[in-house]
Design a protein that fits this description.
The protein is α+β, with helices and mostly antiparallel strands. The strands form ten sheets. It has a seven-stranded mixed β-sheet with strand order 3-4-5-6-7-18-11, with no helix packed on it. A six-stranded mixed β-sheet has the order 25-29-30-28-27-26, with helices on both faces. Helix 16 (about 660-675) packs antiparallel against helix 17. Bound molecules: 2-acetamido-2-deoxy-beta-D-glucopyranose (NAG) (10 copies). One 2-acetamido-2-deoxy-beta-D-glucopyranose binds near residues 94, 95, 97 and 100. One of its GO terms (molecular function) is calcium ion binding.
């Protein structure tokens, strides 16, 4: 029915919509006739420069003062005068966001300074008030930060109730601190504030004598991520303020129309309702009372102005900026902008004169609608069939019949849509070099991970089907099982078993409070992963390479058993230069130097990459890590250097260094050195690596039994805390 409506609309206004392709100028965000900028800062309505330009009936503080004493001029917000103060200090605005309902402003820094050998003292209590304004400090996006040695900082608010938060920072020498270190108590500390703060005082005091190098201590509320510690900030008189905080520090606050809330669905909007643009809607504020307005999907602009939300011309965006073509695809049709959206019109009935006027109204409109719908539907089905064929679907069926494979589930596009709630963003487990991975629930309630590949090359489709057949027949307890696929869409989708406890990468490197990882657990994960790789290299009818061995591709189940994932992904794509560059970026730190030169993957490149994973396991450092001097280092490189300098102990994770098992660690290091040999033919095979690891695992157990028979009885069941669920490159992981 919806489809019919869209088509009908199209037929009635075919020429009109097609010709209105000129881009409208950017809609202005201020009231007509009012300035929309103060200096570099855009001031969108309901904010405005001066009373006549702002929505002061909702709140007088929407009126911004543009102070042109400064060059460029600076926008200021004043809190309304209250009973106990006539004048309020202006607050400088850094940025106003309509969409997010945020204002970023400068807030003061509280400090205390001692001048050497005198009793003189500078001090300032950072006082700040948003009382009476539509702004409320953001709890999630600000932190209270204290800088100094022996500095106790407190932030207090008496509104709505009296509440105080604070933290203590301490250091004995400058050399105990390091630039860029997190504010966890050495040199600086930080804490969150409680909700509903509208005014605060940031005070700081020293608890003991300050060391002579640190004359000043500071306390401030500041936007998350703005402050990063520098040792310099501890040194010198008011150094931090004069160098980095001359105008104060940025603080984020949430604004909203604080009078009223969104009308109930179906109810009339109140008369003074602020969302007056057509194609706008109301959202209740997330912080404090009130509401915000937003333009409907397909529109952009200012929802607080009449006709403020304007149609987005998706077709133009797509033409002008290639990055939108993925967002607004229109594969085989003509893109036509419509109010609030766009449609791809078929080329059926297109006249050959190229004017592209589409289906001419020869038949009556209703007849036409029916015909076009039928054609559309048939075309769509045909397109699906085509994809199915292109993706090797027929061949897969043939193969399955001839080899009597019945382990592959072939899902339709509709089934995949149902399983992933139409590829809902909530279901994204992650995305990596090869595609996006969704968590899906099949009809029978089974949880699966569904991987939507990136475009695959035509030349590889045959290869791909082979891969599916081989992978689906692999049944190894340490390999993530491929359950099925869907070939009805333009890119094939693969369905894998769902693994619950995240990746080895997360387990080793991303725990907030590091989970303990004893040596026996690490050896277990290493051995299991090596067995999986050895199996795949040698046990099947033809060798399959992994091609992307890294800790992100080793998943862990709820008993911390390793499950290697993303096998054969490399076979989906041929290696042209661009792909190769992508691969290097994705696997920096794991890449075999020989492959780097030859662009050719071998089983020995998997061995090299696995060597790096072993290194991560014994050092608990990332393959590319940041060292104490804030420099990026390659783990394999550092390891080789330290190994040759006999400084092995220094690079090992201190948790596992233990004299009684040092011999195991030394043998493991020898094995790793072997795996990292520059020449592939000097590296052991995966099978040899797996056998070696099994041997080391037994040795470790014997040593522990000998010295501590009780501990040996304890079989490792995994740390008590569960790791947050997440998945690697194949089932999730790194930044989308
Ligand atoms: C908003 O609230 C203020 C004070 O609470 C009131 O003076 C003003 O009339 C209200 N404005 C609207 C539009 O309701
Ligand atoms: C502009 O800022 C200057 C310096 O802070 C101040 O003296 C002046 O009163 C301000 N002007 C207005 C119009 O707020
Ligand atoms: C506010 O200003 C008025 C007039 O300028 C004055 O009479 C009153 O005392 C002031 N109130 C306060 C609290 O300063
Ligand atoms: C202002 O906010 C917008 C949108 O939130 C952001 O893109 C922009 O970078 C911000 N500008 C500054 C100077 O912070
Ligand atoms: C802080 O400075 C104020 C004046 O700005 C002064 O009255 C007060 O005594 C100082 N506080 C301390 C603890 O010295
Ligand atoms: C740190 O500095 C203090 C005094 O400046 C010195 O006694 C101490 O040895 C230094 N520690 C290190 C690890 O360099
Ligand atoms: C914050 O204020 C709102 C409304 O004024 C209130 O409902 C809420 O309980 C307050 N939250 C806290 C943590 O005080
Ligand atoms: C704070 O530090 C100053 C300077 O080092 C010192 O004179 C003062 O006694 C200290 N205050 C406390 C409470 O220790
Ligand atoms: C907004 O909040 C009001 C009052 O709490 C409620 O009645 C209304 O349904 C909410 N509207 C939406 C869109 O959530
Ligand atoms: C997915 O989208 C289709 C139409 O595009 C809709 O009919 C269906 O209800 C949606 N399913 C889910 C689970 O959101």
């Amino acid at each position: 029915m919806q489809e019919a409506l869209v088509l009908l609309m199209l037929i009635i206004f075919p020429v009109k919509v097609a010709s209105s392709s000129a881009t409208p100028s950017e809609p202005t965000l201020s009231l007509p006739g009012c300035p929309d900028k103060c200096g570099d800062v855009t001031i969108p309505y309901p904010f405005g420069i001066g009373d006549g330009c702002a929505a002061i009936s909702f709140n007088p503080s929407f009126a911004v003062t543009c102070n042109s004493t400064f060059q460029p001029p600076r926008p200021m917000i004043y809190a309304p005068a209250s009973a106990d103060s006539n004048t309020s200090t202006p607050m400088e605005v850094i940025n106003i966001s309509l969409e997010r309902g945020e204002v970023s402003i400068y807030a003061p820094v509280g400090y205390k300074c001692f001048k050497a050998n005198t009793n003189t003292l500078d001090n300032y209590t950072g006082e700040f008030s948003l009382e009476g304004t539509p702004l409320i400090l953001s709890t999630t996006r600000n932190r209270f930060v204290v800088i100094g040695c022996s500095a106790l900082g407190l932030i207090g608010s008496s509104n709505p109730d009296f509440s105080v938060a604070g933290c203590f920072s301490y250091c004995e020498g400058l050399n105990q601190t390091s630039d860029g270190a997190p504010c966890s108590g050495k040199g600086c500390c930080e804490t969150t504030i409680s909700p509903n703060f509208t005014a605060f005082q940031a005070v700081v005091a020293n608890v003991t004598l300050l060391p002579s190098f640190n004359p000043c201590i500071y306390a401030m509320l500041v936007q998350v991520g703005w402050y990063s510690f520098r040792r310099q900030d501890l040194v010198g008189h008011l150094g931090f303020i004069s160098e980095r905080a001359t105008r104060g520090v940025p603080v984020l606050s949430d604004w909203a129309i604080r009078n009223g809330s969104c009308p109930k669905e179906g109810a009339m909007a109140p008369q003074d309702y602020a969302c007056i643009s057509t194609n706008s809607y109301c959202m209740n504020a997330s912080n404090g009372p009130g509401y915000l307005c937003s333009c409907s999907k397909g529109y952009k602009g200012n929802p607080y102005l009449r006709e403020g939300c304007q149609d987005i011309n998706e077709c133009e965006m797509r033409k002008q900026d290639p990055k939108y073509s993925a967002l607004y695809p229109c594969k085989k049709g003509v893109c036509i902008n419509t109010p609030g959206g766009y449609i791809c019109r078929c080329r059926i009935g297109t006249r050959s004169d190229g004017t592209n006027s589409g289906c001419q109204p020869v038949l009556s409109q209703s007849e036409q609608v029916i015909i076009v719908m039928k054609l559309q539907r048939r075309k769509h089905r045909k397109e699906k069939d085509e994809y199915f064929k292109q993706n090797g679907g027929l061949r897969l069926y043939d193969e399955m019949r001839s080899r009597q494979v019945d382990t592959i589930l072939i899902l339709t596009e509709t089934e995949i849509q149902q399983a992933t709630e139409n590829y809902s963003d909530d279901r994204v487990l992650g995305c990596g070099g090869h595609g996006t991975v969704y968590r899906g629930i099949l009809d029978d309630g089974k949880e699966v991970a569904i991987k939507k590949s990136k475009v695959i090359d035509d030349g590889c489709r045959e290869e791909f089907v082979n891969e599916i057949i081989i992978l689906s027949q692999i049944n190894h307890r340490n390999i993530v099982k491929l359950l099925g696929c869907c070939l009805e869409v333009d890119v094939p989708m693969l369905v894998y078993e769902f693994i619950s406890s995240g990746t080895l990468f997360e387990f080793l490197h991303e725990n907030d409070q590091r989970l303990s990882a004893p040596l026996d657990l690490r050896l277990k994960i290493a051995t299991q992963s090596a067995e999986a790789l050895a199996y795949i290299h040698s046990s099947t009818s033809r060798t399959i390479l992994h091609g992307d061995v890294k800790s992100l591709n080793i998943l862990l189940d709820n008993e911390y058993n390793a499950k290697v994932s993303d096998f054969g992904a490399s076979a989906l794509k041929p290696m042209d230069k661009n792909d190769f560059i992508m691969l290097i970026q994705g696997t920096l730190g794991y890449l075999d130097p020989e492959t780097f030169v030859s662009h050719h993957l071998t089983d020995k490149s998997d061995v090299y990459s696995f060597g790096v994973v072993l290194l991560e396991l014994i050092t608990r450092k990332r393959a590319i890590y940041i060292d104490n001097h804030n420099e990026k280092k390659s783990l394999s490189h550092t390891f080789i250097l330290m190994f040759h300098q006999n400084e092995l102990r220094d690079i090992l994770d201190s948790e596992i260094v233990d004299n009684e098992v040092m011999v195991v660690l030394e043998k493991l290091a020898d094995l790793i050195m072997h795996c990292l040999s520059p020449r592939g033919d000097e590296r052991p095979t995966m099978k040899e690596v797996a056998e070696h690891l099994q041997m080391l695992r037994r040795l470790q157990m014997q040593l522990v039994t000998k010295t501590n028979p009780i501990r040996a009885h304890y079989s490792y069941g995994g740390p008590a805390t569960t790791v947050t669920s997440g998945h690697g490159d194949s089932q999730s992981g790194v930044g989308c």
